[in-house]
Amino acid sequence: MMPPDKALYKTPAKSDWIVMLTADDVALQARDIIMQAANKAIEDRGIFKIVLAGGTTPEKVYRLLAEESIGTQACDWKRWHLYLGDERCLSIDDPQRNSQMVKRTLLDKVDIPNGNVHFIAAELGAKEAARRYQKTIEQALPFDMVILGMGEDGHTASLFPGHRHRTDELVHAIHDAPKPPPDRVSLSVRALSENKNLLIIVTGSSKRESVEKWYEGEDLPIAAISTLGTVNILLDHEAGSRNA
Ligand code: 6PG
């Protein structure tokens, strides 16, 4: 499947940065952006294909999404298709898995059909899991929304500074991740960039140094992700107070 013409992609501009007061403000704004994108995608095409970020930052957002469906029944969950931006090569029930975090915060509370949940079989090992997920992602592109976090070193998903990857892959097998565990599976820059809405959420003072480098144009993995549509970069004051 050929990717869209390179000219159609746009990288985030400084005008896409929004510095909010607290991490709770970021989570509430992120929830609203996701719901808006979901309702539009479902209205336009009857499906909402979303790539979820791992780590801890998005947990608040996923819990708010679950409350949204409980509170107002505004979500047509049966139209949602979930994917993961990356996964850690741990046993399937390991609480450190991103899939387990998504189950705890969202999936166990909302009615998304099992067939619409496209997790990464990272328990099979990075190479086999990446081979299988490549086929899944080939079928899924383009995504309606990609959500990403950022690590303290400027990594996103499991794309780390200074690590080089094949450009013909949609999914990478990672064996030397500096953030444990070393073995991971990650969507590529190309796969993560094939989205209609890009939402990046970064909170906490530990991220401030990399946020500043990113804002000043340093070539970090987070800075390589682009979009075919809209971008929202949401930061709390601790992470982004000296920018935007
Ligand atoms: C992972 C994540 C990773 C995460 C960043 C930020 O598997 O660790 O995919 O890319 O998004 O490391 O993590 P926090 O949100 O926990 O700071």
Short description:
The protein is an alpha/beta fold.
Q: Could you describe the 3D structure shown?
A:
The protein is α/β, with parallel strands linked by helices. The chain has helices at 23-45, 59-72, 98-107, 126-140, 189-193, 208-215, 237-240, and strands spanning 17-20, 48-52, 80-84, 86-88, 117-118, 145-148, 171-174, 184-187, 197-202, 230-236. The strands form 2 sheets. A 7-stranded parallel β-sheet has the order 1-10-9-6-2-3-5. The protein has a 3-stranded antiparallel β-sheet with strand order 4-8-7. α2 links the parallel β2 and β3 (80-84). α1 (23-45) crosses α2 (59-72) and α2 packs parallel to α3.
List the helices and strands and how they pair.
Layout: E1 17-20, H1 23-45, E2 48-52, H2 59-72, E3 80-84, E4 86-88, H3 98-107, E5 117-118, H4 126-140, E6 145-148, E7 171-174, E8 184-187, H5 189-193, E9 197-202, H6 208-215, E10 230-236, H7 237-240
In terms of per-residue confidence, which ranges show pLDDT below 50 for 5 or more consecutive residues?
none
In DSSP terms (H or I, runs of 4 or more residues), the helix count works out at 7
Give the structural class: alpha/beta
* Proportion in β-strands: 15-25%
Radius of gyration from CA coordinates: 17 Å
Going across the biggest sheet, name each strand in turn: 1-10-9-6-2-3-5
Order of helices and strands: EHEHEEHEHEEEHEHEH
Ends: how far apart?
37 Å
**Count of strand segments:** 10
Largest sheet, described in full? Answer: 7 strands, parallel
List bound small molecules: 6-phosphogluconic acid
How would you sum up the global shape? globular
Mean pLDDT: 95
